[in-house]
Amino acid sequence: MIRIDSVTKRYPDGTVAVDRLSLEIPDRSITVLVGPSGCGKTTTLRMINRMVEPTEGTILLDGEDIQRQPVTTLRRSMGYVIQNAGLFQHRTIVDNIATVPRMLGWGKQRARERAVELMERVGLDTSLAKRYPYQLSGGQQQRVGVARALAADPPVLLMDEPFSAVDPVVRKGLQEELLRIQGELGKTIVFVTHDIDEAVTLGTMVAVLREGGRLAQYAPPAELLSTPADGFVEDFLGADRGIRRLSFFPAAPLELSTDAVVPADAPAERIAAVGSPYLLVTGPDGRPLGWAERDRLTDGTVDTGRLLPYGRPFVPGADSLRVALDCAVLSPTGWAVAVDADGRVTGVVSQRTIGEAIRAAHSAGRAEDEKVAG
Ligand SMILES: Nc1ncnc2c1ncn2[C@@H]1O[C@H](COP(=O)(O)OP(=O)(O)OP(=O)(O)O)[C@@H](O)[C@H]1O
Ligand SMILES: [Mg+2]
């Protein structure tokens, strides 16, 4: 949908903010521009809605040069969200969100109804509608900024460090909200951040820019983590990239063992048949109660008053290998507990089995990369 074709931006003082940048921005997905301060992220974003005009090169929207489109038409098709939301301080929340529809000539009532609908969509309590921006928290203001950008239902959303002014917990909530909204509305989002974790969490594609506005790498996040193009990208990704990459592999293929899972009232013969040194004890509802050490059982039966904590379980169908590994590492026995969506135990898995699954996933990933490269 958006194609940036060898675009350069040289400001009048000679600063080259963007240097021969080419990017194909896929439809209905989130493309993240990430890189250190001053690498040309904001300039690139602003060239997409012509707040900044390129010095050289072209930007195509649906195959058409944006230079040939009237600026107002172009901007109407693109919502814009900035850090600190940039709300109109003298307008209520509902009127802030209704700004663009009102500009487009919608009636007051219809615009307000739309605004209230959007408040719900972005996870804002509609009781806040009549407040002014200063009466909201930073995270709430940021949600209003997103709602305002969505008000006229533009196909494209440009977001410039929208979540960087809020604390990490609120930020995580906003990121989850954005992914949910994206899943529901299928917007084409270009998202600027200097936080690589945010880029990896949100991006379908991630463009890493370096100083001088040059593209260092453009790839899906999992590929960025497995095969950084050079030392700059590798440094920028930071530590733990191997562990972080595990987020992209599902836990579903893990082979679970049920041999060591026993109900609290299991008879001594059943318990004696368990081969491992630990038993995962479950309650009548099938949920985990805790681990029992086989050597310390009295009369060969379970004493539910003396169990070790089972830690945090994972859900194979929904969680990644990273979550499964984390559960195993945190477990007192080194085994992770798998549960279904209702919290009932479906099996347990050792660190060793998870390690094997990680190696298998990595070699499958490498084969995939080679196929793409070849
Ligand atoms: N109007 C301007 N005139 C001259 N130079 C500018 C202008 N706007 C930006 N620049 C320069 O262009 C380069 C890229 O700026 P830009 O704002 O695009 O960076 P950025 O990646 O968004 O940085 P940050 O992460 O700090 O927001 C910087 O060196 C900046 O100083
Ligand atoms: Mg910027």
From TrEMBL:
Membrane-spanning segments: none
Record's keyword terms, sorted: ATP-binding, Nucleotide-binding, Transport
InterPro entries to which the protein is assigned, alphabetical: AAA+_ATPase (IPR003593), ABC_transporter-like_ATP-bd (IPR003439), ABC_transporter-like_CS (IPR017871), P-loop_NTPase (IPR027417)
Domain ABC transporter stretches: 2-237
A GO MF label: ATP binding
A Pfam family matched in the record: ABC_tran
Record-listed E.C. numbers: 7.6.2.9
Family indicated by similarity: Belongs to the ABC transporter superfamily.
Protein name stated in the entry: ABC-type quaternary amine transporter
Source organism: Streptomyces toyocaensis
High-level lineage: Bacteria, Bacillati, Actinomycetota, Actinomycetes, Kitasatosporales
